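To: structure desk
From: M.T.
Subject: fold request, one chain
Message: Could you run this one when you get a chance? Sequence is below, nothing fancy, just the single chain.
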Amino acid sequence: MPKVPPQAGPSKQPARQGKPIHRTVDLLKKNDDIKSEGKGKGKEKEILGDVTGLVDEVKRLPGMIFVEKFAEARALEIHAFQTAIKAATAQANTRAFQSLPRHLRRRAASHNPRRVPKRLRSRAAAEIDPGDDIARKHRKQAKLRAKGSLRDRLSRTEQFRLRQRNKTWLPTHIWHAKRYHMVNLWGYRLPLTPTLKSFRPAYRAGRRRAIAWDTSYYGILEIEGLREEVLEMMKLVVAGQFAGAKYESGARMACVTMYQHNSFPRGLIGPAEILWQPNEGDHKARKLWIRLHPSIFNDVWDTMKTASGSRQMTGVQPSANKARADIPTQVRDLRGDVESIEIMGPKAGKVLQRVLRLCKSERGVKKEFFDSLGRLNDPAAIPEGTVVGLKVYDPRLNFPPPRFNDSERAPLPEQLLRARHVEPSAELAQSSLWDEDVREDLSKATFSKYQLDARRHRLGAPGSKLNPLAQDDRIPVILIRRAVHSHTNPNSLESFHGFTLLLPPGWTMYFSSSLVYSNTLIGGLNERKVQHREAGLPSFPEYFGAVCEAGKKWEAAKAATEKETWDRKPPGKRVQWESLRTRNPFVPNWDEVMSRTSPSPEENTVNGPVPKRLVMPWLLASPFTHHLKSGHSSQDLLAMMNAFRTQRGMPVLAKDKASELFKTALIHVEINVLGRGSPGDMAMIYTLSALQREEWIGAYERGSLVQAGDISDLQQLGESIPAEEEIIGYTTTGNISLSRGTGHGLGAITLKGYLDLLGATERGSGEWKGRLLVRVRNRDGRVARLCEIRVVS
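Reply: Done. Structure tokens follow.
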């Protein structure tokens, strides 16, 4: 066999020899051999390195240690070591933007390192994925949008004005838009709720500290004319007390209800606040402001024009006295001319004293009142509706104001006794904010923020407060004491008290910034609505569905949103209303409820049969509900309505209107759950007959005797769904009440159903006598709950 010649190819590399690892025993033996050969001292360091030094150090150590003393001596080192471990762990599990407090975080911070503070930008940039180009794409798209458009040639103010073509921004819109969910309502862009959790924080702020809202979306109608003619015009459209020395002096604000011209008790428009200008000297003309919700401003404007007898913006009312005929009755629109902030909570007075700096020209009762704000533990100590006119310095001069802490000591009892209680008066209510020229002059601040910062920089010390100069603005404000409570029990623990601050245009943002820095929470529309529900007072227009146009629009918009959300869900994931026997899950069907409350045979005999037609519910005002009894008939109700119309100079209603009024009347009620559960939105309210009432009361009292795991009698009664004929009303909204600790809600029931409940209550006995009991079932629930209701007034 021939020998195969060697083939060319890569040569094999020799194996790499590793570094030998010597044992310590071998090194010591080698060291002894070197010493015996006499090669000199110190050679062991070349072989052992630092091993000998380590042995020498060990020889100098004590034979034993005291662990406690050793640990105390090394406590700082141990603490630093533990802190470093925790910091390393946290840094490995969190991003740079997450180290900020929640209220300082921004949504874009996870993609853009410029959205975090400067000290964290290097770390944030290192944490971002190199392939993440979201921020760069947004910048590129913004440049493309701006290229070729007019925006690069428009100022920022003009750009903002273009964005308000179909809506109006609040003065604090820029601040709110970064922190709140915004929504378009009533022609404004309004903050709905904060992006952070706010249900419990807002309640705690209203109960313990202070919470504020920008309410500049409320509009003001100004009416000026002779007193007699103004009263003659107002009494045809207003229900409630607003005249007399108590209100006409300007010392107090009146809360009334507006109606269409000469249409009481129907034609409800909505609630309003009336404020008279204090009369200075012997002026024949009087001026008053009507503060209105934006959803009803146009309706009231048209009604006032109708009442004044003119279709123009300024109406003239003819006078019998020719000497006074030269003073016309004028109606003016002051929307945008007067801004407002509402602040509620027990510390509202103390917060205002920190934010406002009273001018030195304010003396007498005004200075006494302002000084007393710092001693107030609760604004409830001031009479409700008190009006105070003050003149204060520019809040930016004192920015930031002193923060209010919960740990501050309350005033001593002897200090409260020495404090002089200032009563409402015309002198206290005087303010130059009523002057149109003053409001126009103050619409723009004299000094810009840049100029004030330059003045502060010249002082040298950081955080120094500026002393007011003669050129600085003096801002007139009107402070109104307000309350959110049920009129049947104004001093209850569920009430909220605070102030409304009326300001010239352009100053709301400056005052709001000071409020934020004084540890005051800023709320949205949802927080304001929840506060009204906690106090047992219906807020407008959410709780006025079906009884006024603004309520109908709100109800329809809410129903459309809920219906759209329900339609988007697949059939297996949404509530099946048919299986729960819920016929009207989104909007109350008052036609069906009221068609079942037919008049009695006696009423049919007197008034004749009533033809079936579309019902128009109307709200029975609170003053009349106090006079209702179980035996009230439709004629009694008509007599009460005609008595009011006669007092206001309106023609009486015909007798054939009695049955229709009685049938379509609604009453606002407050619902408290007895036991478990809470009412939700659009829950159905069922009546209880006298027999059913006793059965439910017995089951409720036996509930505490049920053993664990057993079904109580109350649960068994609730599982039987009541008949639709027993529905007498619906809840508007409900939830767990943080004030009461139980389920709570607000709703409306028919007048006929309320009178039937009164009759069943009078036949009761014991502690349950006089308590109105009903059953409430949620629209998506199968169990009815026993509840107690009270009339809201």
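Reply (cont.): The chain is about 35% helix and 15% strand. Let me know if you need anything else for the meeting.
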